[in-house]
Every structure is written in structure tokens, then in C-alpha cells.
What we know:
Layout: E1 10-16, H1 24-36, E2 42-48, H2 60-63, E3 67-68, E4 74-75, H3 78-86, E5 95-97, H4 98-111, H5 121-137, E6 150-155, H6 165-177, E7 183-190, H7 203-214, E8 221-226, H8 232-242, E9 249-253, H9 261-267, H10 270-277, H11 290-303, E10 307-314, H12 324-336, E11 340-347, H13 355-358, H14 360-371, E12 375-378, H15 387-399, E13 404-407, H16 409-423, E14 428-430, E15 439-444, E16 458-466, H17 472-476, E17 482-489, E18 491-493, H18 498-503, E19 506-512, E20 518-523, E21 529-532, H19 547-557, H20 560-565, H21 584-602
Parallel strand pairs: 1-6, 1-7, 2-5, 2-6, 7-8, 8-9, 10-11, 10-12, 12-13, 13-21, 14-15
Antiparallel strand pairs: 3-4, 15-18, 16-17, 16-19, 19-20, 20-21
Helix pairs in contact: 1-3, 1-9, 4-5, 5-6, 12-19, 15-16
Amino acid sequence: MLCFLCPAMRYILVTGGVISGVGKGIIASSIGMILKSAGIRVTSIKIDPYINIDAGTFSPYEHGEVFVLNDGGEVDLDLGNYERFLDVTLFRDNNITTGKIYQHVINRERRGDYLGKTVQVVPHITDAIQDWVERVATKPVDGDKRTPQVCIIELGGTIGDIEGMPFVEAFRQFQFRVKRENFCCVHVSLVPQPKTTGEQKTKPTQASIRELRGLGLSPDIIVCRSQNPLEKSSRDKVSLFCHVQPAQVICVHDVSSIYHVPLLLENQKVQAYLIDRLQLQVSTSRPSRLMSRWKELADRYDRLLKEVTIVLVGKYTKLEDSYASVVKALQHAALAASHRLDLKYIEAADLEPRMQHDDAQRYHHAWKELVGANGIIVPGGFGVRGTEGKILAANWARIKKIPYLGICLGLQCAVIEFSRNVIGWKEAHSTEFDPKTPNPVVIEMPEHNPGQMGGTMRLGQRKTIFKKSDCLMKKLYHNVECVEERHRHRFEVNPKMVKDLEEKGMKFVGHSEDGERMEIMELDDHPYFIGVQYHPEYISRPMKPSPPYLGLLLASCGKLQAYANRGFRPSPRMSFCEDDYDTDEELEDATSQLSVEKTTSTS
């Protein structure tokens, strides 16, 4: 009887030192990307040591945006980086929190699974962490449903944080559970360069590595984050005092865009080191084009000269991470439109008339920025603060024919504005902000209000069916009959008001499967006035920009009509995606044409 053993799963643990926010998420994503470019199937797990069950109830100011997955999981924004870089579809269990682990262990204790034993951090919590990682690592995340070969695990926070200690101990044990040859540790640390001396300081990194080793984990690769390229003397010092070869000390200095980070790692032979260290089997029969396409993406970003100004009208604008996926989707679309994105943030409340009395300078500055915009986007949000400012932004875009994209609440604000100023329902509002409004054009979905906040919205991937064949959005989606996008909302456009809205020119061209929910809105007689109830930014990719965002950027650049004349196919200057071409020959022709254009422009 023959026995065929499955290849062992390989694990790469990414930890951080010195400070939080050092860039572990981008490093982890970039490692995954360079492995994927070698034909290796990769998945990712993000560990957040906070006690919350998930990120769903966080304020955006607390932890950045809440990223939503296909299965409705509300997770850390770093999972968005993984999906964008690796072009995979992750699940809620790919985000582990202390709250999830403790809830799992306590539920087992209540069922009597521990047979009356004292439940402790070691071994019960640490075993639960290891079991969770092993279970999730084998879940297929690519479209082909094949089991991943490598799982990249990012441990949030910094080494030494009290919250992260159970996880560090779990991975100290885990390296022996899966065997050391199948486990690799990458430590990301800061190398500061004080202006007073101009010298790169390696002492913080040395101390961080010493603490990591004291906890039982030895780094295989040390990634030094620095403002400028790491000097040879600094690299040698880290190598000497941290007990690694100089080739295992990797420099990731500040670069013009995150698209350069995988290229930095590749140039320093990280891919070759990991393949050798983990003994990964790489197919050489068909070399991947992913790395060359990524290099073209990074180079194109640096070459862009023309700018397009997009104004984001939101209520969490003091922290850019509050709109991380929105910003990434705008960047993807701007890159495809061959324009550099000039993104300006406006606090929605600053547009409201009362601000003239509270802070006239802020009021006038906000309106100056809005008036100078090539395009306007109003993203999602919760709470009444700033709502009237968003409605005013939608009004300005409508009457001045400025390209507008409303996401979730941005759609609802556009509907409220239209109801007030076109139909004449002066008191029209959402019941979220005015429960007693006589014209409730936006209402709550009763099935999504069970009395608690976490995980109770309409979440995850849902199907939207186009109801009109000649609408702009359907053409931007390449004339498909339906699209599947991710949702996160508890309120919707009132179906009873739709007939009145459509009679005045606001068309709802996309509905939910049951026909009850308005998913896509277009405005007649406007160059680009679109609202969507879903969040298209969640599945935007650097080489596959989201159609609603692409439409906004093309309209803002004055290129939408040219795009339509090409049958809504990209020009060679737009970012490549195999899905946009029917045959390999078409893609090769486009690539060749771009090479000719680049040579001509250089000469």
C-alpha cells in the first residue's frame, strides 16, 4: 500500500520592534508577493493582541478603517494590504484577536472540554493559538481552491508588549511543533537617524532582537526600516550584534511608493533566501510575469507628471488610515488613468454654514478646496456629525457638473440632497439622523438591528443585478449582468420613495437580488454622478482598479469619453490586467505598444 504525504506547510512569522506602525503589514505583504511571483501559493494571518472580538466596533481614530471580507468579517486594515498585494480572498478567521482566542477557550471550558482541569494561559491559550493557525493556514485563498504552501503571520504590536506575550510563547512552542525547518522568523525594526548627528543608530534594533531571543524566538531575517538606505557599517553592526549573516540584514528605506517595497526585497535576494531556507519547490517551467508587471507599476507611478485633484469629504480626516482602502482604490484608478493623485481631505463639518461663525478660516478653506476639485468622493461613515456638509458637497457636485462618487453614506447623502433640492422635500432625511422626518428617504433595515452593535450590519459579499442595459456603471463593469461587491451598512434608500426619485432623473440602475435594495444610482444629464451602496474599494487591486473609482478618475481627468470610445477597454498606458484582454496576443500587443511609447517619450 502506497502512502503519499502532503508537503509540509511553511510558516513565516513577522514581528516588530522599537515602535508600532513600523511597516510590518507592508513588509509581510511584500514577502508574500515575491514568493507568489515564484509560483508559490501564499496565505496570510494577522494577529491583533487586543481583547476586542473583531474590529467592527472600533472608532476609525482608534485603529484606522474597518476592512470587510467576503464572508462579512470585520477585520484589521492590514488584511486589506494582504488581499491587494497577493490578489487573494481571505476569511474572518485570518484575523486572530486575543478576544477571539479567549472566547473560544472559555466556550470550551463551559462545555466541559477540559475535564475539570484548571484552564491556564499555558498550555490552553497557547495551544488554542497554535491550533487556530494550523487550521486557517490550509484554507484555500486563491480562485483555484488549492491549499497554500506558505502562511505569513504578522504579529501586531511590538515585542515586549504585555498583550502579545501569549502569542510570542505560542510561536516559541510552534516552531518545534511544525519543525524548525518549516518555520522562519522575520523581525522588522526601526533604525533611527537623529538630525543632530546624522548617524544611523542600531542600538534600538539590538535591544529589540535581544528581547526577542530572550523570549525564545531567533530571527532569520532582520528588516531594518530607515529613512535613508542602510550604510554598510550599520548593516555590519546589526549582523555582528544580532547573530545573523550580513545578507540576512535587509534594508527597507523610505521610498516614493509602497510598490517599490517588494522590489527592494527582491533586489536583496529575500526571495532566494526564503526558498532555500524553507526548502520550497519552485516550478521553473513557466516564469512568472508578476514581478515584471509590478516593476512596471512602480516605474509608472514615478514617471507620472499630470495631476488630478480629488477631494475626499469625510468625518475622520485627521487620520489617513481611516480611509485606507478608499485612498488605495483612488491611487489604483489614478495610476490606470496615467495621472498622479493629488488627494485633499475636507472635514465635512467644515462645509456647514455654522462653521462661518465657529471658525470662518476653516470654513472658507474647506470651500476653496471643494471648488478647486476635479472630482469629489464622499465615503461611508456613521453618526450625524458632518452629514450636512456631505449633503452640501453632493449638491455642489450635482449643480456644477463635477464628477462625484458616493460610497454607502455618500449615496444616501446624494439621495437626501436630490430629494430636498430637486423634488422639493425640504425636510427629507435619513431616519438614522432624524427619526421623525416626514420624508424618510433613507431608512433602517429592521433585520439588522438586534440591539447590539458588533457584527449586526448587512455585511460581506452580496450580488447586485443591473436593471438597465444602457447604464454607465454596467459598461464600466464590462457589461456583466451582475456584480458581487462587499457591503457594510445598516440603512438603505427607502424603496417607497424610488419611483418619485426616478421620475425626476435619479436612476437606480442596480438592485439587490430580491429587488428590494437600491445598490447603484446614476444621475441623468451629468458627466459622472454615481452612488453605490456597497464598498467597491475593498476589492480594488493595483492592477485591477475598481470600476466605480476608475470611472471617477477618468471623468475627473477628462478621459471617460475616450475610454467609452474604446469600448471601455484600457489603453496601453493603463495598468495591465489579463482579464481586460480576450487573448494573449492582445495583451502582448498592448505591452509592445507601451514599450514603443516609452522609448519614444524617452528619446
